[in-house]
Design brief:
With 227 residues, the protein is of the alpha/beta class. It is built from seven helices and ten strands.
Length: 227
């Protein structure tokens, strides 16, 4: 599903240049649950953003489900991203003035789906993550774990083939983090491909394979060792 070949990314500031990703070679197969680890500044979030077509790369090749990403126009990239990829972030990124159901339904608004239909689907996805009874609650009325599950339901409502999660447990306690990983594993069992960026070894241990980055290069990629 994901294939990167000799991929490089630079950040430029005036005359200075930072080589963030260096000749990255990576393949993630459909149906995998993998983690990306590395110290701060290793390039793991940049790599996830490139996989999610949120950031551009400078050289090399990236194919997503067989499509060369660099050849996509801005409009094509947005359409591909919105229909193919779901995103979950550490900060949840929920709209504070909208209910849980309205937050979950939001991606369907941008697809032109009518309010009644999108709210019906939002309730179905909230039920799927165990939060049907919280549908009318605003984010500030929910716990951190509940807000993250709302964010997962929002990511799933467009039926993506790929779920990208950037430090999804970073703001959660250990028990809530493990419950979130239980949910990810259940979704993966249904065939969803999931990539999780994390700095927590116990979270990475819940995935099938760990990709380790150091100074923009892939150091190791292999089966995750039990914690």
């Amino acid at each position: 599903m994901i294939r990167l070949s000799k991929l490089n990314k630079y950040y430029r500031n005036g005359e200075s240049e930072l080589h963030v990703l260096r000749d990255v070679e990576l393949e993630i197969r459909s149906g995998e649950l993998v983690s990306i680890m590395g110290s701060s500044g290793s390039g793991k979030s940049t790599l996830l953003n490139i996989i999610g077509i949120l950031d551009r790369y400078d050289s090399g090749e990236y194919r997503l489900d067989g499509t060369l990403v660099k050849g996509l126009s801005e409009r094509e990239a947005a359409r591909y991203r919105n229909r193919f990829i779901g995103f979950v972030f550490q900060a949840f990124n929920l709209l504070s003035f909208k209910t849980a159901a309205e937050n979950v339904a939001l991606p369907l608004y941008y697809q032109g789906i009518g309010r009644r239909a999108r709210m019906k689907l939002a309730l179905e996805y909230l039920e799927r993550v165990g939060l049907a009874e919280r549908a009318e609650h605003l984010p500030n009325m929910l716990s951190g774990g509940e807000r993250q599950r709302v964010a997962v339901a929002r990511a799933l409502i467009t039926k993506p083939k790929l779920l990208l999660a950037d430090e999804p447990t970073g703001a959660l306690d250990t028990e809530t983090s493990y419950r979130l990983m239980d949910l990810f594993q259940a979704l993966n069992d249904e065939g969803l491909t999931i990539v999780v960026v994390t700095h927590e070894h116990d979270i990475a241990a819940r995935t099938q394979r760990t990709i380790r980055l150091r100074d923009g290069r892939i150091e190791t990629t292999g089966a995750t060792e039990p914690s």
